[in-house]
Amino acid sequence: MYDYYLSLLDKSEGSYREKGSKFLAYAYPVSLESEVQQHLTDLKKLHHAARHHCYAFILKPKEGQEETYRVSDDGEPPHSAGDPILGQIRSHQLQDVLVVVVRYFGGTKLGVAGLIHAYKTAAADALANNSIVEKYVERTFSVEFTYSVTSSIMKIIDQYSLAILEQSFTEVCYYRLSARLRDYETALAEFAELDQVVVKH
């Protein structure tokens, strides 16, 4: 079962220069479109004098859906910027990744072929300066239980290396948990077999 994907470890930068134009590339791990927009907003503030802020991103598929991806040429000729950037992300089979290339125009037009090469090279440089890591596809669920079964609950959590996202201990104990996709159904079944435990998706 597919439950992992390739992404980036952290933010990285790259660059390319051609005929006076500067292409500054930034690569980020992201998981939400809101994160994409925040990075774009921050870069536009940082490079407010730049003429173009071109980008591409791919987000891993949500449950039952296709992957999400977008490209932007931001005023450059169609398919001369966003697509070459996207091509670099795809060439590494990455997901949950955003690459932005900021261009400072140098006064000399590069032509479509020149732009494609420049955006591709800048994006490739930013990715080369990062580390590609394997990340897991996860699903979340919650369990409510009484204090008397706490040790059994913890045993299952440890067995499947479940992440505890939220917790509360009042009259009823509560955990919000995250499991690797491959372990999700099995872990749920084991919790459901315990007395005084309620499992919620």
Would you write up a description of this structure?
The chain is of the alpha+beta class and 201 residues long. It has 2 domains: 4-134, Impact, N-terminal domain (Ribosomal Protein S5, domain 2); 138-200, Ribosomal protein S6/Translation elongation factor EF1B (Alpha-Beta Plaits), CATH 3.30.70.60. 32% of the residues lie in helices and 37% in strands. The chain has helices at 33-46, 82-91, 111-128, 150-159, 181-193, and strands at residues 4-8, 12-18, 21-29, 52-59, 68-72, 97-104, 132-136, 138-145, 163-169, 173-180, 197-200. Helix 2 packs parallel to helix 3 (111-128). The longest helix is centred in the middle third of the chain and has 18 residues, at 111-128. The two termini are 20 Å apart. The mean pLDDT is 93.
Keywords:
201 residues; elongated; four-stranded antiparallel β-sheet; 5 helices; alpha+beta; single chain; Ribosomal Protein S5, domain 2; five-stranded antiparallel β-sheet; Alpha-Beta Plaits
Shape: elongated
Proportion of residues in helical segments: 25-40%
Number of helices: 5
The average pLDDT score comes to: 93
Order of strands across the main sheet: 2-3-6-4-5
